[in-house]
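Forum > Structural Biology > Help requests

Title: Can anyone predict the 3D structure of START domain-containing protein 10?

Hi all, first post here. I have the sequence for START domain-containing protein 10 but no way to get a structure on my laptop. I'd be grateful if someone could post the structure tokens.
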Amino acid sequence: MPVQIPDDTDFTSFKEQCENHDGWTARYNKGSVTVWCRDEECKTVQKLKMRIACKDVTAETLYDVLHDTSYRKKWDSNMIDTHDIGRLTVNADVGYYSWKCPSPLKNRDFVTMRSWLPLGNDYLIINYSVKHPQYPPKKDYVRAVSLLTGYLIQSNGANSSTLYYLTQVDPKGSLPKWVVNRVSQFVAPKAMKKIYKACQKYPEWKRKHNPNLKPWMYPEQNTLPCISVADLTIQRADSLENIDESSLNEEKQAQHHSDDEET
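Reply #1:
Sure, ran it for you. Structure tokens for START domain-containing protein 10 below:
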């Protein structure tokens, strides 16, 4: 299937999914964080939505943090590797991301086409999985599929914002129930809080690390090689190996180590 770069209609549709809670069930609601899942999909990790209120972080800072791959390596402890592969347009690129799954599950990786758009007081970033000829599945990872994943950042004034994260992912495997429960009850809210903390520290970090370099805002700074949409195809889930991890038991020691981990 051919790859299409999202247009304004796609971004508007994504925003509506973030803001409209019909058909969603709240699985976690504490403090400034809420996590929902789709009613018909609560037994899977396929579709989750999260929201966090960031009372002392600007929308612009959130937008920068979510784009800045150099900074991500400082705060995202679940990430194994991430890098940009190439650019498609001034507001679309292709990238690679791999992340640690709870032990004893196999780690997952993605190749995605990402697109972004400032829209009034909002900022949006969305992605979905694609095939790139130079990035086939690796033997040590399960190649997962992002059907639609992204962020909606809303400005609430001079120094306040709200962040939505919506993800619809096929993890390419039959997962045990403890993974599904742990994602919605622990992993997801912790991830949102981690982004918030990273945003609070970002302005000081950025002042010391190429403070004027923001290719997501200034396309003329982008030095990635140009790639053609014609070289990409949509990554279909049914073309990838499906593994059954549903019988794996949670490793308590590994869980505690992961739970206590802080950036």
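The first strand starts at residue 24 and ends at 30. The chain has one domain: 8-259.
Shout if anything looks off.
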